[in-house]
Amino acid sequence: MSWLKRLFARQRLYGDLSEEIREHLEEKIEELVAGGMSRKEATYAARREFGNVTLTEEDGRAIWRWTFVENFLTDVRYGLRTLGKSPAFTLVVILTLALGIGANTAIFSLIDAVMLRMLPVEKPDELLQVQYDDPDWSGEGASFTSPIWEQIRDRQDVFSGAFSWGEDKFDLAQGGAVRLANGIWVSGGFFNALGLRPAAGRLFVDSDDRRGCPAVAVISYGFWQERYGGVDSAIGGTLSLRSQPFEVIGVAPPGFYGLNVGEKFDVAVPICATALFDNKESRLGSRSWWWLKVAGRVKPGISRLQATARLKVISPAIFAAALPEDFSPDGQRRFLKLTLMAAPAATGISEFGMRRQFERPLDILMAVVALVMLIACANIASLMLARTATRHKEIAVRQALGASRKRLISQLLTECVLLSLAGAMLGILFAHWGTALLVRYISTHRNAVFLDLSPDGRVLGFTATIAVVTGILFGLLPALSSTRVSLSSAMKGSQALEIERPLRFRTRKWIVAAQAALSLVLLVAAGLLLRSFTKLATLDIGFDRNNVLLVAADLKVAKVPPDRQVAIYETIEERLRVLPGLVSVGRST
């Protein structure tokens, strides 16, 4: 508790130090007066002999632990007052930094959401996805048939909880226009293995996923808020999925959007309920319907490599029991040679290669916005150099009073970091708007991309780090230059010599050179991107794409029997042909 006592007693200690210094001076003055000096001469002589009183007090205070914190708080208060005296300069710098830091935060937020963010489940690092250990079958989007999943579930011994899931679209309308919702088929242990707790009602258990299971559904938290207004009466209500009534038994926790990166689910339905929708061939028994992904929570003490080794051991029996009958002899031989492996799934699954598709573009964008940030730093450094040049007299006076160069540099850098932190706070708002705009840009009407862009600890830490580093980058050279003050010239009011000329000119030359070099790199990169975009826009794709309209109709969602679908497509085509202004109509499947 000694540190706590020192914390509350430091003002008393500082007062004791000042009193002791004053007593020493008084003793020396009295000694000199007794020797025949006048009191005025004795005072000057004692102070000359003793040295700078302020500096001595600061050196004495430095032996206590809280000096750094106090100096920092003093610098912050002084910096805020100084910046408040130049509102126009402060506003320009903050806006410039907000744009630069906001752009960096926006791109990093996308990288975090696509590549780095952990799933909002219990101990996500324990999750492993089951994949094929084969170059032609491997990947995060590896899908399995229902018989393969059942074999994995029954034979595996590496997961404390294995589960499977698959994506689908459900029509919520009971006649009339189609209203699609994002759905997932899940095994009974899906939510329990992920360690999720319901926001309302209950989640699925193993007994909900049995042949002939009841028609029950779990809805997402967002869907619950949007469709039902978050009322508890939604639990036990009926939800129409492709004209089939399902009882809503629970709501998933907020923040859980599913396991697939770039997607979110609205409704979760047990896998066994596919029997209510499949017309002829049931997915549950089909050995040729590849629609399920498999993952699990690894048992304590088992590594990913050990899990892979055990999955390889049981692979021959699994694939022999689930051999597709419609495969050719060569295809069956290749199928029986397949083995399973375990891959990390802590950050979710990129089924359609979203990570692979956007990894390089995001890296390029990150490099571009980093260059923009460096150019902004160079511009602000020039402004700071010009601003500190007008403060030569203030800096000279502070040095004459005993302030060390290190202390002055610290104070000037604190001002820069304050500007940078203010720019970062405004930049977070810009980043939120920018990321939403980028996500809308990469989304299409048929394939909407969903990313959880709420700032997490990693994004906020990145923003804070880049703010501090940026403040040091644009503030260090001006601080070093402005503290090399010629005291005699400054006190006489000479502005020509307030900073040593060689260092001042070298600093400005370096800043201008950095601006020119970075701007040139950015212009060249922009030119190359524009050229690539122009080539893509003018690429000959084999047909005239002008005045071409695309119309899509999913008759499976509308539960149209397969034997009637061709006739309906032909009817649609015939009706389109008679519309005025249409030259030709074609269709493909």
List keywords for this structure.
589 residues, alpha+beta, 4 domains, 54% helix, elongated
Q: If you had to describe this structure to a student in words, what would you say it looks like?
A:
α1 packs antiparallel against α3 (53-61) and α5 runs antiparallel to α11 (354-389). The protein folds into 4 domains: 2-65; 87-115 and 354-537; 124-344, no CATH class; 548-589. It has helices at 2-34, 39-50, 53-61, 67-84, 87-116, 146-155, 190-194, 221-228, 304-321, 329-336, 354-389, 392-400, 405-442, 457-482, 487-491, 501-537, 562-577, and strands spanning 127-132, 159-171, 180-186, 200-201, 216-219, 238-241, 244-251, 267-270, 293-298, 340-344. β2 (159-171) and β3 (180-186) form a beta hairpin. The chain is 54% helix and 10% strand. By secondary structure, it is of the alpha+beta class. The relative contact order is 0.12.
Tell me the Rg in angstroms: 35 Å
Query: Structurally, how many domains make up the residues?
Result: 4
The total of helices stands at: 17
| Broad structural category | alpha+beta
Order of helices and strands: HHHHHEHEEHEEHEEEEHHEHHHHHHH
Percent strand equals: 5-15%
Compile the SSE list and pairings.
Elements: H1 2-34, H2 39-50, H3 53-61, H4 67-84, H5 87-116, E1 127-132, H6 146-155, E2 159-171, E3 180-186, H7 190-194, E4 200-201, E5 216-219, H8 221-228, E6 238-241, E7 244-251, E8 267-270, E9 293-298, H9 304-321, H10 329-336, E10 340-344, H11 354-389, H12 392-400, H13 405-442, H14 457-482, H15 487-491, H16 501-537, H17 562-577
Parallel strand pairs: 3-8, 5-7
Antiparallel strand pairs: 1-9, 1-10, 2-3, 2-9, 4-7, 5-8, 6-7
